Give the backbone structure.
Amino acid sequence: MKNATSLRARRFLRGFTLVEIMVVVTIIGLLAAIAIPALQRVQQRARNSRFVSDLRTYAQAFETYAMEHGTWPPNGLDGTIPASLVGDIANKWRETNTLGGMWNWDTNRLGISGGIATTNVKVSASQMADIDAMIDDGDVTSGSFRLFGTRYILVLEE
């Protein structure tokens, strides 16, 4: 008789019940629901920081050019580096930036003397306002980082 009882007791100790498994799955699901949005916010902040860092690097290269030559380089097409700056700017200029757009240099356009633009960005207006807050005043209609139609431009000189 003891053998049958101990056999039954061992069977219960062997595995988890369906209820226990469901509780664990639910807890994991809740943790994932909390963690995923936080991870996405961190990734967005990292992309924004990279964009601002690249923008500052390019601004420094263009300002150095202007100081050495007494004028801004001529306009370029999206993703095209002005010929006189090929050695000064990394190949990143030709690639899609972290916002999904293309880099562009603007001279004497849209009422500014010189500025670095990004066109065709694939992010929301609120994300662009966050980027503006990192650079300027958080308002893309004023300050040195502005929206001109579909272009966001860091104005180096008006």
About this structure: The mean pLDDT is 84. The two ends are 96 Å apart (CA to CA).
